[in-house]
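Entry type: protein chain
Record version: 2
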Amino acid sequence: MKSKKWIIFTIAFFVLVLLFLVLKGFTVKNIVIIGNKHLTEKEIRAVIAIKEGSSIIYPSSKTLYERLKKIAWIKDAIIRKDLNGTVTIYIKESSPVAIAIFNDKAYLIDYEAQVLEDFTQQIQVSENQKPLFLPLIKNIDPFKNRETLEEAVKLLNFIHNKGFVKPEEEIIISGSNPESLTLHINDFPIIVGKGDFETKFAKYLVVNSEIEKRGLKVQYIDLRFPDKVIVKPVQQDLKYE
């Protein structure tokens, strides 16, 4: 009986040693990164923490994915491992939709209202040399006032998707809360408030057309009320019921 147990133990030991040697032979020989535009290959390699010569089995693809998703710029990623030693990483980066300015700091914001990076230094250069290339979101804390920031980004996405603004127009959104969100198009304020953008801008198009026909000089337009649009001319109030 002892002899039989010893034989089983010996076989198991050699199987484990063989398995270890086989797995050790599966090493990373080449790392290919595809789809990165903003992030450098060096930055991505630093996050995944694998290099040529390390095991291709560990860490797992799931672990590598979780590491990549910690980078704000990475919206999604696919990891492929081949037994020939090649690890291929397909990157889908987020796209900036606006620049949030708060307390003298600037941040790139994506289409899901996520902060991509501190953009303070770059925006100073941009203001001195050429017009800003993205809409601005002003006076909304991108970290502590998430609800308002998310609503501002929804508004931006809506006006861009519906073609309410032209690429050359200056767009600024401001407001301390979702209910006070105000869209500035070339310095003209349109108080939009929270949600129901389809209905609000349908009314805006009608009212704005009437304003242009009459040649009115208007201070602002307020779209927040369900049964009316408030227009503030330079001298008096007009209400369109």
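Comment: The first strand starts at residue 30 and ends at 34.
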